[in-house]
Amino acid sequence: MASLSGSEAPRFTRDRLTWLAYISLSAYAFYLYALGPVLAFLHQELHLSYTVTSLHSTIFSAGAVVTGLTFDRFTGRAGRHRVFWLSATATVVGALLFVVGHQVILTLLAAFVLGVGCTYLGAGCSVALADRHGPQRDRALLEANVGASGTGVVVPALLGLLAGTALGWRPALLPPVLTLGVLYVLLGRIPMPSPPVPPSVTGRLPRAFWGPCLLVALAVAIEFAIIFYGVPLLGISVGLSTASSAAVLSLFVAGELTGRSVGAWVTRRPGRAVPLFGVALGVAMTGFLVLWFGRAIVLAAVAIYVTGVGVGNLYPLSLAMALGAGGGKTDQAMARTMVTVGVAIGTAPLLLGVLSDHLGVLRALTVEPALIVVAAVVLLLVVRARRGEPAAATPA
Description:
Layout: H1 16-45, H2 50-78, H3 80-100, H4 104-133, H5 137-163, H6 175-187, H7 210-238, H8 242-248, H9 250-266, H10 273-293, H11 297-311, H12 314-324, H13 330-359, H14 361-364, H15 367-393
């Protein structure tokens, strides 16, 4: 830690492109963190089963898979700038469909449009930051997610607050719509950085990419299990109402904000993503076990905060590792990563929904510690593979 003084750290410049990506990623995160509480309200308002409720997350993940299957090709043909603002438009449309939708068919359509728009927007922000900041992509992506977490702290509390008023929870989805419109007016002409390897250069991604790519999927599954089922878990374990549980869930995002702030400081020097990821897994496991077994409101609140501290670093660090292992094919690496993310978003909450209908929420959440253990095993394999690379390259 002593070597992380500001004088020794490489220069890190936050230009207009960086701020555009930071703020846009916060708009993406707003809806990502809102989706869990929104589905809890829809479950109650439309009298849906847990399985049908979780189907929204599956539809959302289908949009993410579509992004993963098309991102590199579409971006290569249309250009990063045009794709970025088209994705912002789709995000706005998806949000408005949720605002006006009072039937399941409309909310499912909203989940799909928002899934495509949000994932394209998040992917565009991530590749822009990764290519703009190069070896300091760890820090850039963590700082971007610090802002995203700051936004996410407000989302559950805002939804819970408005749900108890005559306005209802739906107007809480409008702030990012206005934000993206203002960004387009002020920063809409800023060019996006070109990928290190031109899109015309095709070929397989390096073998070293797939381990970190799997870590991204596991990180998303770990996070979404809390985002989507934190509200019913708090309701069952400590007896909170849906609105109160949605408000308490903001502590999870506050924990993510804390974890990512610390992570951004630690990664001022490149090369610290792997050990920090391992520490984050340990903190996440500790916090979740206390949350899972706890029956007191204060204990549950502290535990969900600690869980957020650990979980917060998992996605940005694994994404930085995956993009860094892509051999300069940033768009292609991002696209393949988004496929696994989409599968994780669709599989984990739906599996929890089916298990909750048959076993109950508490038993179903056995999935969470299992995912953390699997992520730890994959991390060890990634570390072993990295240690073996120099030896393999050295003649006997």
